[in-house]
Design brief:
- By secondary structure, this protein is of the alpha+beta class.
- The chain is built from eight helices and 18 strands.
- It has two domains: about 160 residues, 2-Layer Sandwich (D-amino Acid Aminotransferase, Chain A, domain 1); about 170 residues, D-amino Acid Aminotransferase, Chain A, domain 2, CATH 3.20.10.10.
- Strands 1, 2, 3, 4, 5, 6, 7, 8 and 18 form a nine-stranded mixed β-sheet that branches. Strands 9, 10, 11, 12, 13, 14, 15, 16 and 17 form a nine-stranded mixed β-sheet that branches.
Length: about 350
């Protein structure tokens, strides 16, 4: 199905004002934005227009009760400058899992994909060329009612904007547990990309940074020993040449699409992977015995982020040098090659398809 998206291009692009060799993450925005309204049970007013500020009531329901979700994905281009979209359907499906949990109407997968493709086709000159760079896309949905009362909104906004970005983490990260804080519980919203999940992580993150660490490595909320995820990333540990990563089927951990991609890549390469609960005590024991070879995060923003130090209470573990790590470097090289169109062994790449007039 093709949707009637009205396109109103900008009359003056801001590209000439941008230094693509020096792009701060999340602060530079492209020329256009996609907007849709959910009214009377359907998505209407589908529009791509120049990026602009929004006007809304102080009584906007999302501001007060947090009915807001988002996605994040990256787009690169081939040698001809044509956009390449990686696993769009997975992002659409995850957005809808978040929507269902937060009582938000789902976005038809065909609309999600068409809106992204047409928006990026219009702004494809914003895609950076550097190996560590990409065009980051932020689809999001929020309640649009002007109403002060605890109930789901009747109306919603679905929007997508894009921004050229460089690396999310410029250097390996130092992470620490903070058992006095909890990110998620079974039955909660931990698996959803809900705005409130991230708001609740900010105070612990600030405290971690005051201690000299970059992010919080979250533990479970019941026994405070099982490792969940870290900041904006899923986590993987390499112990005795086996990659171990926590399961996401309990509803407490975000189902990372980069995580799934890395698992698929490593399995194809014959690298042993265990998807199972892992405790902080197991990681400490592996480090003490010299069996902890690597730890790294996976995520859309960071792709692969090396972990240099893990702290838990008084225990501080400095991990082996980054240069000697094999598995994480291999996984990143494979993902970069797929994103750059150099290979596509899993059929993950899609390209822009023009909508018939």
């Amino acid at each position: 199905m093709n949707y009637p998206i009205k396109i109103s291009p900008t009359t003056e692009s801001r590209i000439p004002t941008i230094d693509f060799d020096n792009i701060p993450f999340g602060k530079v925005f492209s020329d256009h934005i996609f907007v849709a309204d959910y009214i009377d049970g359907e998505w209407r007013n589908l529009t791509i227009k120049p990026f602009e500020r929004m006007s809304f009531s102080p009584a906007n329901i999302a501001l007060h009760y947090g009915q807001s979700i988002f996605e994040g994905l990256k787009v690169t281009s081939d040698e001809n400058g044509e956009p390449m979209f990686l696993r769009l359907e997975k992002h659409a499906q995850r957005l809808n899992r978040s929507a269902k949990r937060m009582a938000i109407p789902e976005i038809p997968e065909a609309l999600f994909k068409q809106a992204i493709m047409e928006l990026v086709e219009l702004d494809k000159n914003w895609i950076p060329k550097g190996e560590e760079s990409a065009l980051y896309l932020r689809p999001f949905v929020f309640g649009a009612d002007d109403f002060i009362g605890v109930r789901p909104s009747d109306t919603y906004k679905f929007m997508i904007f894009t921004c050229p970005v460089g690396p999310y983490y410029a250097a390996p990260v130092r992470i620490t547990t903070m058992p006095e804080y909890v990110r998620s519980f079974p039955g909660g919203t931990g698996f959803a990309k809900a705005a409130g999940n991230y708001a609740g992580s900010l105070r612990p993150m600030l405290e971690a940074r005051e201690k000299g660490y970059d992010q919080v490595m979250w533990l479970d909320g019941i026994e405070h020993k099982y490792i969940h995820e870290c900041g904006t990333m899923n986590l993987m540990f390499v112990i005795d040449d086996v990659v171990i990563t926590p399961p996401t089927d309990t509803g407490e951990i975000l189902e990372g699409i980069t995580r799934d991609s890395v698992i698929t890549i490593l399995k194809k390469a014959g690298i042993e992977i265990e998807i199972r609960p892992i405790t902080i005590d197991e990681v400490i024991a592996a480090h003490k015995s010299g069996r902890l070879q690597e730890a790294f995060g996976t995520g859309t923003a960071a792709v692969i982020s090396q972990v240099s130090t893990i702290a838990h209470g008084d225990v501080v573990m400095d991990l082996p040098p980054i240069e000697g790590r094999k598995i994480s470097h291999f996984a990143k090289a494979e993902i970069v090659a797929i994103r750059r169109g150099q290979k596509d062994p899993f059929g993950w790449i899609e390209r822009f398809t023009a909508v018939p007039a």
